[in-house]
Amino acid sequence: MNTESKFASLKEKEREARKQIIIESALALFAKKPFYDVGMRDVADEAGVSPATLYRYFPSQEELFVEAFIQDISSVSKAFEGMVKKDAPATIEDFAVTYVDHLIQNESTFQMMTYIMLKDNMDDQALKEFGAVTRIFFDGFSRILERYGVKENVRLYAQSFIGALSGIIMSYRNYAGKDKTQIREHILKVTRITAEIYSHKLIP
């Protein structure tokens, strides 16, 4: 590798390191306060860069949010991969509880996901990246169904199931008169009932 190539490689590594610092700073802020209260200037201050520098790495707020979401969800994606690859695939209930409990325990992840889902006029590239990472859930559940011998409408069942689980969280995350522990218990109870319905319907 010549000197010019080495320099270009070093510059790219430095750029990726700065980008990673910005993403980690955004995630740190999301852990401290509501996702929707975090602005680009807040992230720039947390990362120790100017807003202008931040926008060079992330031209829009949506792009930053999607990158943060992708990184935040990477840990749980490994859990889903493990569920599918086991000699005996995970049950539908195991899959459902893992999905729901991760989003309950990681409020910022859930906020980012719902924000991106509901945002009008999202940047095309950001939407494409978001779609790629959320396919982890659909693909994982589809593969579990296939391991159990389901052959028809697998993708539709996966879309229906993930939609149902997300809807359960949205419906009960602010359940009036209950504390966080009670809310989690109720959401998981409804999740298990939903998983049981799908199991009886789909698995011979």
From TrEMBL:
<protein>
    <submittedName>
        <fullName>Transcriptional regulator, TetR family</fullName>
    </submittedName>
</protein>
<dbReference type="GO" id="GO:0000976">
    <property type="term" value="F:transcription cis-regulatory region binding"/>
</dbReference>
<dbReference type="Pfam" id="PF00440">
    <property type="entry name" value="TetR_N"/>
</dbReference>
<keyword id="KW-0805">Transcription regulation</keyword>
<keyword id="KW-0238">DNA-binding</keyword>
<feature type="DNA-binding region" description="H-T-H motif">
    <location>
        <begin position="39"/>
        <end position="58"/>
    </location>
</feature>
<dbReference type="InterPro" id="IPR009057">
    <property type="entry name" value="Homeodomain-like_sf"/>
</dbReference>
<keyword id="KW-0804">Transcription</keyword>
<dbReference type="InterPro" id="IPR050109">
    <property type="entry name" value="HTH-type_TetR-like_transc_reg"/>
</dbReference>
<dbReference type="InterPro" id="IPR001647">
    <property type="entry name" value="HTH_TetR"/>
</dbReference>
<dbReference type="GO" id="GO:0003700">
    <property type="term" value="F:DNA-binding transcription factor activity"/>
</dbReference>
<feature type="domain" description="HTH tetR-type">
    <location>
        <begin position="16"/>
        <end position="76"/>
    </location>
</feature>
